[in-house]
UniProtKB/TrEMBL annotation:
Residues 52-253 form the Peptidoglycan beta-N-acetylmuramidase NamZ N-terminal domain. GO terms for molecular function: peptidoglycan beta-N-acetylmuramidase activity. It comes from Mucilaginibacter myungsuensis. InterPro entries: NamZ, NamZ_C, NamZ_N. This is DUF1343 domain-containing protein. Residues 257-400 form the Peptidoglycan beta-N-acetylmuramidase NamZ C-terminal domain.
Amino acid sequence: MPHLNPVTPSKDDDVYGDGDDLRYSKVPTAKNLMTGADQTWLYIHYLKGKKVGMVINQTSVIGKKNTFSVDSLVSLGVDIKKIFGPEHGFRGNAADGGKVEDTIDPKTGIPALSLYGSRKHKPRPDDLKGLDVLIFDMQDVGARFYTYITTMHYVMEACAENNIELMILDRPNPNGYLVDGGVLDTAFRSSVGMHPIPISHGMTLGEYAQMINGEGWLKGGIKCKIKVIKVANYIHAMRYRLPVNPSPNLSTYQSVILYPSICLFEGTTLSLGRGTQFPFQVAGGPALKGQYQFAFTPQPIAGVSDNPPLKGQTCYGIDLRKYDLEKLFKSGKLNLSWIITLYKQSPDKSKFFNAYFTKLTGSEELRKQIEAGQTEEQIRISWEPKLSQFKLMRKKYLLYK
């Protein structure tokens, strides 16, 4: 068994793996990357003899064959007692916002409990009874409004309250290069924005969990005992293509990288292409007819978008399927020009935004700024000094370059 190289950022957090494993590559590249889950030798012996729960979904895979992690660990003799699934369900085949029920995993016979529904992201004390350790292993995409960090917050809180250790099998953030956006005003806290961070935080879930602990964001300032298994050969600037789609509507690399910028349209009356074969790569609506030639018509897709916005209506707007992503990588910034432009071109601006926009942006400021005709640069200036303060705070919790 290779030597473990632990780093302990705080008395509460243990970190295993050096994150830049020179046995594989002197220069970190996506080709040589190994997720925390892949490095079973770093944690398998620790789990033996313990009663284990897992918070996982379809992205929780191990190795080049993308073996489902629960199947792999069971085959290695780990005693998995319960599985917890977030939004989209344990197998990741539930539509956005779709109801996910408790069930029994047909392959392993392990109870699979839904965290998306009555539990509201948080395991109950009875759910955790008898467990020694809970594993959190899911693929995040680096945006504040992506609900897996909300799930992690509540899982950490439940573990802290029930004296259970949380092991995080860390995975790369495909938008790790990007730290940008207005910092959330906690008066507008919701399930799509819990913490005072910008829209794109540029951290892995292992790093983010340390921030939740370190900044005292859990209820009553309690701390969760966490053990992070680091990613090997990863840096934040890496171009990383996910081996498995993180959710039904983020189905391409293009959509994952566009997501932090384009998801703002979810808070408008326009469609983001849910109910098409290219969600989160387009934006448009019926009212933009005559201004754009590109058109699409959302239709129900079972298990992906059962009732998409603007269902059956022809929408006209922007097509970003071939947008050069290097422009985003090189700028290191969110693209606000898309939403500013389509707002200006909307014939009925009073109906452009809906209440969800405030939840997504974490304040009322961005909506007011766009309505007032402010430029992208003027908006960016207003994000300071809070954005720079976050970047400074973030440095305390980074595990990777």
